[in-house]
Amino acid sequence: MSSVPTLQVRNLRTEFATRAGTLRAVNDVSFTLERGRILGLVGESGSGKSVTGFSIMGLVDAPGRVTGGEVLFQGRDITKIKPRELRQLQGNRIAMIFQDPMMTLNPVLRVDTQMIEAVRAHTSASKAQARERARETLAMMGIASPDERLQAYPHQLSGGMRQRVAIATAMLHRPDLIIADEPTTALDVTIQAQILSEVQKLARQQGTALIWITHDLSVVAGLADEVAVMYAGRIVEQGGVDAVLDSPLHPYTAGLIGSLPANNRRGSRLQQIPGMTPNMLQLPPGCAFAARCTRATAACQAQPEQTEPLPGRLVRCFHPALTASAPSTLGATAPQGLEARV
Ligand SMILES: Nc1ncnc2c1ncn2[C@@H]1O[C@H](COP(=O)(O)OP(=O)(O)OP(=O)(O)O)[C@@H](O)[C@H]1O
């Protein structure tokens, strides 16, 4: 087993040339993901999560372009390899799962055909062995009567079932890296929770590194080891999931946690982050969150560099919450202390 991380993203930048100007959707994004670890990439709509996923996969199309940085997959920069080699990696070693499972599944093939193919793409298993492995994986994904499901075409399955099959099929390739873009968002919470726990088990068992893109912090809380919070194209905070959720350093992270229903007392209004997400074509030169931030000062008119004020805790903020801790756990109380500190 090599000690090289599965993925190192360094100073990644992706831009779209639009009529109104250049839109920097991903700006100086860096993170490392070790084998078998799960990273939750979280942020509001438009913050650049999906474009980050597509950029890593080498799937950004015109008018978009990766204009800077490196994506080291097992130590090799895949932004610089030949298209043919990249396509091989995409199908094999790196997989993407989408909100719509039909982006992964082929509608005209029965589930067993697709799953058997997925196993045989990377092993010399016989058809019968591959079918058995497909059956086991479906069972692990919580699918009852897997034999019956194997006979079905994708359209004959319910939405939740189809997504489970799509995830199981991606997992059968035994990729080293999976990038999942909000695959459970459309499903009801109970099914979502089941799928998350099954995915977590499978990823751990196979040593697959996983990036789980979501706007929902409670998904990250239940699934991920690490979290990266995106705002206006940048990662504003990253670290171990428990540490970040218990005592967020960045005011935006604190705001996201405070706006979770579980963190609000019954009958009280949900705490909203004031203001609107910024126009990505007219970002201020300084901190993009400053206009909404209760801690903003004149210093925030400059762009905050990423710092590591606590071991393993990275933040882009001139005023990280380093003093009073914010003793929030999801399901308990909202971060205290934010107002007190301001
Ligand atoms: N093809 C495109 N042309 C121009 N701008 C684009 C294009 N695709 C994405 N963008 C812009 O890039 C920014 C980041 O978009 P992205 O889809 O990554 O956000 P997101 O955080 O994944 O949001 P959501 O959860 O809504 O998908 C947005 O401002 C979006 O408008």
TrEMBL record:
Keywords: ATP-binding, Cell membrane, Membrane, Nucleotide-binding, Transport. Belongs to the ABC transporter superfamily. The keyword Zinc does not apply. SUPFAM superfamilies: P-loop containing nucleoside triphosphate hydrolases. GO terms for molecular function: ATP binding. Its main location: membrane. This is ABC transporter ATP-binding protein. It is found in: Cell inner membrane. PROSITE patterns: ABC_TRANSPORTER_1, ABC_TRANSPORTER_2. Residues 7-257 form the ABC transporter domain.
